[in-house]
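ARCHIVE CARD
Drawer: 12
Card no.: 0347
Subject: one protein chain, sequence and derived structure
Cross-reference: see card 0346
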Amino acid sequence: MTMPNIAILGTGMAGFGAAYRLHAEGIAPVMYDKNSYHGGHTASFRCETGFLFDVGPHISFTKDPRIQELFADSVEQRYETVQINLNNYWKGYWPLHPVQLHMRGLPEGLIIKAIADFVAARQLPEESPGNYADWLLASFGVTFAEEFPMRYTRKYHTTSAKNMSTDWLGPRIYRPSLEEVLRGAISPSAPQVHYITHFRYPSDGGFMCYLKKFVPMGNLKLNHELVSIDPRTRELRFSNGVISKYDSLVSSVPLPDLIPMIQGAPSDVLGASRRLACSTCILVNIGVDREDLSSAHMTYFYDEDICFARIGFPHMLSKRNAPPGTGSIQAEVYFSDKYKPFSGTAGDWIEPVIHDLRRCGVLRDDDRILSRKAMLLRYANVIFDLERASALKKVHGYLEDLGIAYCGRYGDWGYMWTDESFKSGELAAERVLSATTSIAA
């Protein structure tokens, strides 16, 4: 029996999830990536000064034992298990995360008003929220909603909470009881309640080492930038002149890029793909001559005059991520084609980030900057705006009609964590295998 020629577009976590599932059937897919390296957003890079940075904040906190063991096996059981510590910055205050459970220490007037509004909101009859803003107001009351999550939404998602659905929430934002809010406002020992408690991170080599086991399962073709797909002849064309045939296709390519490359894509599907919104992230990576930069692994910033929405400290994930005695900071500054277009270069944001890190006290005036680099991620976080659901239904329906199995954050067009992306790839491979079996039958 001839093995099917299965192509996978993208070599990130979802692409390798697909490769892993196909490998179990004895199939070695051909995997294409436009970059000179594999891993996509799972990649890690060590700069000449010795600091290692992942492409965006990456930790593995999956509770799925199967995925836990797969990843642990991929790094030969060499990983750090870390109890996570998260905090926030608001107008010079540093409450623990989530803020709704840790208001103690914030201005008294704010706390009183937030609790009064919280009580008033909870006394209203339960209604199905029309958007994310409705959900926030019903969950927290107007004062807390406007001072914290609504501000953060504008920075992180680049649009208003009123323009977002609630499809993405899941466990991501904790909805507390009145007792929990009161305890967090008056007690220094309020409990940590968050969807992440512990996480794992590779001891050496960065987050991309979790892919190590899976790389041999595909025939990797790097420096292959896709320019067109002919679904009729089942041909892929690349910018380097290569033309490749496929029997079945799995894609983790972002949908707004994928659809225009499909020959014959109808105008309504093209229009729908253009309505899909995603943020663009400028990652500013800083190396410092001091390791005691923060007690938290990650900090969320609500002040809209501070350019970054979030910062993380890679040296706290593994001591091998930075030279001895040094620390590292990764700051995220967000834009989006649809709501807050980016212009200029990523490097333009290095000095504003350093300036704001000093303003809020993360960096001291006498800290010596050992490394400063910036990276542009055109696709960062899917924005769950009110146009997403209908546009996505049309795009996905078209791909299903063509038999193209989509996967990953930018194929499923969802809010996916690492384990979810990997499993999304497995499911895409399963769909391809089922279709191949039915054709053979």
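Annotation on reverse: The first helix runs from residue 13 to 23. The chain has a mean pLDDT of 95.
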